[in-house]
Input
Amino acid sequence: MKSLEQQKINQLWQSWRDNDDPKAYEELVEHYMRLVEQIVNKMKKSLSNQVTFDELKSHGVIGLLDALTKFDPHRGLQFETYASLRIRGAILDGIRENDWIPRSIREKAKKIERAYQELEQKFLRSVSDLEVTQYLGMELDEFYQSIKETAFLSYISLDEPIDEEGENTRLSMLSDSRQVIEEKINQQNLKDILSKAIDRLPEKEKLVVSLYYYEELNLTEISEILELSTSRISQLHTKAIYRLRGSLSRQKKNIF
Output
């Protein structure tokens, strides 16, 4: 038997979908606000301190309102799943539009990503930290500091929506042009390429990616499981994302 709360939510949905009842809409917004806060809390831990909880929440609310307006229950998705995609997507769009990321950090990230791309294309394997630092002309300490500074750029979910329905994933790490992805991407081919790229990751990086994106654990939980510091988990995650982006950049001809 459905709980009383679920029965009430179902009634609110019926009133909103069938009758455009504004009171039902307001109650649904209030009910799902906790979903916005949960997502913001998770994303805030990985983003620059320049971005406040309230700023992220304001963008997340836009995503929630968009989800309530566009959700079609007949497409087979649970609303929470659909809304989560829209909320995270709206937050990421807000971050990009407000350009909270300093240009110097962006340049560092591009430089490191390019190093992984070119080295792993050359050697056809995962390269070591030492090989990357030699290529960049950095000391190891400087490299690890750069990884730390650019870490928040890499905490982007692999399942952001790229279409109006929210059923297909954004994979926004793969290209600077969201429009190109939306117009030309072959979704199944992309999934195959991404799967192979993840399989080639060093074991610890692969495990961190799996736990973070697929098991949806946070950094602290992963650090407890692997018995490593949170900063070390963050470093592993960031390097994994650089490798994936480099690998996927090489495969663009197979994606588009």
